[in-house]
């Protein structure tokens, strides 16, 4: 038998110290985890500036240190006061808004929706573009988010024959998309601004505006839209999220504010198709939207035609 050491005053103090340390450990509150470098980088949003114009999808860091995302375009309204224009945004959540894993349409479903698509229109290109417009298909209820995704994909599918065509097929139209009355003219050439990409971006002024918004020189190099899948998808989302076209609202606002799929048609090609202009084309878009919402398991909502 091993002899036990004597219980001296020093040993009593040591034992009491060990007990106190154990109890403290049991009831300690864990310290917050340090953000990973990737998460920290995701929070690198600019500071909010009063009076600055913010398009839909803009992410800012407010004076309280929190981040907010513009769900409606606005001239720099205060994010903590103007709740209709801004939503809180957790920018370091890799599975949250803007992250590829957060898109309501999976890659396998995307492939099923467009079985004959051109290999140029990659799912990765789409999710990369979505990261630049984090309000897309992340605003509102789960039903609203899926309806917006279905509406966007139905329209770009219609514009491209099921994501088959990268460029406009009628080359006779190519010289018509140069508005030389603009101060910047058509530096890429008279016939350079024909329709390209999922939304068939056309006209020199649209290439100029899209390029300025995306940080790309599309005015001088519009061919990027037919050469880079992510750029092509970004131009389509840029139009969807920020442009009213011949309509009164963007496609995004039409869907998230309950105005219906018909208003997205009006914003894209309403001057030609709506109000009886081409009912067959309108019906084609609606039929595709119906099919896509059914696959996503949500109702179509009202106001389907224009």
TrEMBL record:
GO terms for biological process: carbohydrate metabolic process; cell wall macromolecule catabolic process; chitin catabolic process; defense response to fungus. GO terms for molecular function: endochitinase activity. InterPro entries: Glyco_hydro_19, Glyco_hydro_19_cat, Lysozyme-like_dom_sf. It comes from Actinomadura livida. This is Chitinase. The lineage of its organism: Bacteria, Bacillati, Actinomycetota, Actinomycetes, Streptosporangiales. It comes from the Bacteria. The active site is at residue 159. Residues 104-306 form the Glycoside hydrolase family 19 catalytic domain. Its EC number is 3.2.1.14. Pfam families: Glyco_hydro_19 (PF00182).
């Amino acid at each position: 038998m091993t002899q036990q050491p004597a219980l001296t005053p020093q040993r009593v103090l040591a034992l009491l110290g060990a007990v106190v340390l154990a109890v403290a450990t049991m009831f300690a509150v864990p310290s917050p985890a340090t953000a990973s470098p990737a998460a920290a980088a995701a929070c690198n949003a600019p500071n909010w500036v009063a009076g600055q114009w913010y398009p839909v999808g803009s992410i800012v860091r407010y004076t309280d240190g929190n981040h907010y995302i513009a769900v409606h375009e606005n001239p720099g309204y205060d994010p903590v006061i103007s709740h209709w224009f801004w939503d809180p945004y957790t920018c370091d959540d890799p599975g949250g808004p803007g992250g590829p894993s957060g898109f309501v349409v999976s890659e396998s479903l995307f492939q099923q929706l467009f079985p004959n698509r051109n290999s140029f229109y990659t799912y990765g290109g789409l999710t990369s573009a979505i990261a630049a417009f984090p309000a897309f298909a992340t605003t509102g209820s789960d039903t609203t988010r899926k309806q917006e995704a279905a509406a966007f994909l139905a329209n770009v599918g219609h514009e491209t024959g099921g994501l088959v065509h990268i460029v406009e097929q009628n080359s006779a139209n190519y010289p018509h998309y140069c508005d030389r009355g603009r101060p910047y003219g058509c530096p890429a050439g008279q016939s350079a601004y024909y329709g390209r990409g999922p939304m068939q971006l056309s006209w020199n002024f649209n290439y100029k505006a899209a390029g300025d918004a995306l940080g790309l020189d599309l005015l001088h190099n519009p061919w990027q839209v037919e050469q880079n899948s992510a750029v092509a998808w970004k131009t389509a989302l840029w139009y969807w999220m920020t442009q009213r076209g011949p309509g009164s609202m963007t496609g995004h606002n039409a869907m998230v504010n309950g105005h219906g799929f018909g208003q997205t048609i009006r914003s894209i090609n309403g001057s030609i198709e709506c109000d009886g202009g081409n009912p067959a084309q309108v019906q084609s878009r609606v039929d595709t939207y119906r099919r896509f919402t059914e696959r996503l398991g949500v109702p179509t909502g009202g106001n389907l035609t224009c």
